[in-house]
Hints:
This protein has 294 residues and is of the alpha/beta class. It contains 12 helices and 10 strands.
Amino acid sequence: MTGATGNxxxxxxxxxxxxxxxxxxxxxxxxTARLPQGVESVHGDFTQPDTWPAALKGAERVYVFPYAYYTxxxxxxxxxxxxxxAGVRRFVVHSAAAAGFAPSDDxxxxxxxxxxxxxxxxxxxxxxxxxxxxxxxxRPGLLAVNALGWAERIRAERRVRAPYSRSGYPxxxxxxxxxxxxxxxxxxxxxxxxxxxxxxxxxxxxxxxAEIGAAIATEVRFEELTPAQARAQWLSDGxxxxxxxxxxxxxxxxxxxxxxxxPTGTYEEIIGRPPRTFAQWAxxxxxxxxxxxx
Length: 294
């Protein structure tokens, strides 16, 4: 497991342990990883190639976090190549929906961002495919966990401030992404597949605020900002200008429809039940919005 302490990776670890699998996690600091009992945590860092052999020794299957794409130039063989040399026979790639988009020369801030994301994630996928080993690509859409960006303000003020209240995407619960990754790691049913995983339906920002309020039994007000006001706020929060620009364009793109990423039925086809709703995600994360310890 790489990325084992992240929002999705930790749930992949839980799913593998629950399925009776032996798991080794490559983490920066095994002392603070707080992974389930029985998981072997070893020190490893994508920026330190000399740490990879110990993590990869004896591994047959690898969950590949996107940072594997950015191998230091001085590393010689990249992480994926070293994994093959160590005997890995299957890769499940933590990718992104953008990897499935067509190449674009759109020069808008959003267009440039999506093309950069497409190239990075598709680059890792192609790197894995070129090994000739078994592979599956798991491509989550926009994650519901991004709503945690509102948590501090909701804890302090019980409100959300953002532009385009009616904008929204089919936000996906990180547990759904993990379910698909686990299935790809432990069964042979998904070899050679690339799966785009979304939530069940578009959920607007004002609906997200309402669902979070319901989860914490407190009204969460939505204060609509103009795009200019939102950009100024994000810049004061430390966001780079380019990021603020594409975020505004991303929201504007999904006011009247699903925007660049409509819902898919992939999760239900693979797992056999509907994907988790945003309401369920909000309930699962109520403590984050109340300030309770994990």
